[in-house]
Amino acid sequence: MTARAPRADALRNRSRVLAAAEQVFVARGTSVSTEEVARAAGVGIGTVFRHFPTKATLIEAVFRERLRRFAEEADRLVESDDPGSAIWTFLSRVAEVAAGKQAWADAFTAADLHEALTPAREQLPRALGSLLVRAQAAGAIRLDVTVAELVALMLAVARVPDDLRPRLLAIVFDGLRPQP
Amino acid sequence: MTARAPRADALRNRSRVLAAAEQVFVARGTSVSTEEVARAAGVGIGTVFRHFPTKATLIEAVFRERLRRFAEEADRLVESDDPGSAIWTFLSRVAEVAAGKQAWADAFTAADLHEALTPAREQLPRALGSLLVRAQAAGAIRLDVTVAELVALMLAVARVPDDLRPRLLAIVFDGLRPQP
Amino acid sequence: MTARAPRADALRNRSRVLAAAEQVFVARGTSVSTEEVARAAGVGIGTVFRHFPTKATLIEAVFRERLRRFAEEADRLVESDDPGSAIWTFLSRVAEVAAGKQAWADAFTAADLHEALTPAREQLPRALGSLLVRAQAAGAIRLDVTVAELVALMLAVARVPDDLRPRLLAIVFDGLRPQP
Amino acid sequence: MTARAPRADALRNRSRVLAAAEQVFVARGTSVSTEEVARAAGVGIGTVFRHFPTKATLIEAVFRERLRRFAEEADRLVESDDPGSAIWTFLSRVAEVAAGKQAWADAFTAADLHEALTPAREQLPRALGSLLVRAQAAGAIRLDVTVAELVALMLAVARVPDDLRPRLLAIVFDGLRPQP
DNA sequence: GATGAATGAGAATTCATTCAT
DNA sequence: TATGAATGAATTCTCATTCAT
C-alpha cells in the first residue's frame, strides 16, 4: 500500500529530458519547441509531457536543476581558506554560466525567480548565505547586502553582451565592497 | 515635383500604432499578437502591417522611439548646473523606465542593441556622452567607464525585480564612483 | 445630353495600366498583386481599380488586348502571296508569344477563353478564318479543322517547356496537314 | 532494432489526405486552401501539415502519386498484343485524366515536371519508354519522337477545353504517325 | 479623376497539449 | 510507461477592394 517507487527507466528518462532541455534552451532559447527537446533527449514527445505536464513546468525544472548545481558549487567553496575571494569566484561563475548565449537569462526570467528562491525551499540561498557571511566577516564585502540582492545582481549582469561582462562585473564588484 | 509629403491621416495612424504598441508591449511583453496591438490602436491589422511590414520592424520602431525620448531627457539634463547628480538622475531614470514590468527589457533585447547605439546613427550616445564627460570632470564618476557600459548596466538593472531595484542601483552607483 | 467623352488623361492612364499589367503578368504571372501593377504603371492603385473594377477584369482586358494584336498580325498576313506558309507563320507566332515565360498561358486560362473567342465579338476569329480558308484552298492544311481548334492547339503548345516547343510545333503542324 | 514501421493509423491518414487533396485539387484547382483539403479528408489541418510540411509538398505528392498510377497503367499496357494501339490508348488516357476540369494541369505545372520525370527516379518514363519502342517497332508512331515530348504533348492537350479535346487529340496523333 | 491609406477576410504554418496504439 | 500521431487555436503576413483626402 506504499506509493509505488518510480521505475528505473522512468527516472532515467526524466534525467535525459532535463539534460537535453538545458542544452537546447541554452543554445537556442526557451522558445524552441518541446518537440525539439524530445528529439534531443531521444524520447517521444509524450514522454516529455508525462514528466513535465506543461512547457512551463519543464523550463522551471531546468532552472531549479541549474540552481541546485550552483548550490553545490557554493557548498564546495564554503570550505575554501579564503572566504574573501571565494565569494567573488562564485558570483563570477553565476554571471558567466547564466549568460549562456543570452538564453539562460530567458529561462531564469520565464520561471518565477522569487518562488524559486524562497529560502525555505532551496539550498542555494543557504549555501550562498554561508559564503556571504564568511566574506562579510573577512571584510571583503559590504555588510548591508543580502543573498537575494546578490543573486539578482548576477542574473542582471548575465544579460549583458559577452564582451562587456568582465568590465561590468568588475564595476559591480567594486560597488559590493565595503564603502568608505 | 517635391517628394510628396506623407498624408496627415497616415502620420496620425503611425503615431497611434506606435503609442499603442509601446503601451501593450510594456504591459504584457513583446509577445502579444500584432492583432492586439491593432485593436489597442483602434486600427485594422492591415494598417499596422502597412506601417511596420514585420513584427520585428514594429518592435524596433518602438525601441528606437524610446531611445529617442531618453536622448531628449539627456539633452535637457546636460544643461543642469550639477553635472555630478545629473548623471545619476539620468541613469536612474533609464533603469526605472526600462523596467516596465520586465517587458521593456525584452524589447531592448529583441532589437539589436549595439546597432541601435551606433554613434553615427543615434542621438542617445551623444547626449549621454556629454553627461558622462561632465560628470567625470566633476569627479562624480570613474574615468574608465564608457557610454556603452553605462547603457548596458542600466538595461541589466532594469531586469531586476521592482522591489530590489533601488538597492541594486545604489550598489551599482557606488561601483561607478571613482574608486579609492 | 451625350455621354461625356473620356478625358484624355484618363485614356492615357488606362493604356499605361494595360501595358504595365501585360509586362508584369508575362514576367511574373498573374498572381502579382494589383499594387505592383499600379507601381509598374506609375499610377496609384485607386486608378487601376477605377479603370478595371476587379482584378479579373484587368486580366481579361490584358488578354483581349493581346488577342486584338494577334488579329492585326493575321490581317496583315492575309495579304501575303503564299497562303500556305502564312498560316504556319501565324500559328508559330501565337505559340511563341503566348508562351512568354509560361505566364501568358496563365492569363489565357484565367480569362474565359470561349467567351473571348465568340466570333461575333472579336476580330481574331475573322482574321484567322481568312488565313485558314486561303491555306485550305492552297491545300496546305486539312479541311476539317476549325479556327477554334487552331487557337486551342496553339495555346496548348504555348504551355510546353521552351526547349521542346519547336519540335512539338512541328509535330502538331504535321498533324494539321491534309492527311493521306 | 529495425527502423520502426510507420503506424497504421498514420499511414491511413496520409492516404486519406492524399486522396482528398487529389479530389479537391482536380475539382477546384490547387489554389484551394489547405484547410479545405483537411476538411475533405476529415482530419485536422495539423495532420495535413504533419504529413506534408508545406503546401507545395502536398501538391507535389499528389502529382507524383498520379504519375505513379499512370506508370502502372503503362506497365499493364506493355503486355498488350497490339503495341500500335496500346500507345494511343495510353496517351489518350493521360490527356483525359490530366484534364480534370483544367486543374490537373495546374498541379502538373506547379510541380517541377522535368524533375519528376528524371528517368532514374520515376517509373513512368521507363514504362512509357517500353510502350514507345514497341509502337515504333510496329510502325505505329514516328521514330523521331521521345518520351519527354510525348508527355509534354499530352499535358498540353490536357489544358484544352473538354469539347475540343477528342478532335485535337486526333490531330496530334496524326502528327505523331510516321510521316510520308 | 487620381491618390494611396485603411480595411479585414483569408492563407500558410507552428506548437502546446491530448490520446489512441 | 512510452510513443508519436492528431488536434486546432493562434500568429504573422498578404492582397483585393473601398473610401477619405
UniProtKB/TrEMBL annotation, chains A, B, C, D:
Q: Which UniProt keywords apply?
A: DNA-binding, Transcription, Transcription regulation
Superkingdom of this protein's organism: Bacteria
Key word Transcription present: yes
> Residues in domain HTH tetR-type?
11-70
The keyword Transcription regulation belongs to this UniProt entry's keyword annotation: yes
Q: Which residues, as ranges, make up the DNA-binding region of this protein?
A: 33-52
Q: Which SUPFAM superfamilies match?
A: Homeodomain-like, Tetracyclin repressor-like, C-terminal domain
User: Mind telling me which PANTHER family this protein's record contains?
Assistant: HTH-TYPE TRANSCRIPTIONAL REGULATOR BETI (PTHR30055:SF234), HTH-TYPE TRANSCRIPTIONAL REGULATOR RUTR (PTHR30055)
* Name the UniProt record assigns to this protein: TetR/AcrR family transcriptional regulator
- Which species is this UniProt entry from? Paractinoplanes bogorensis
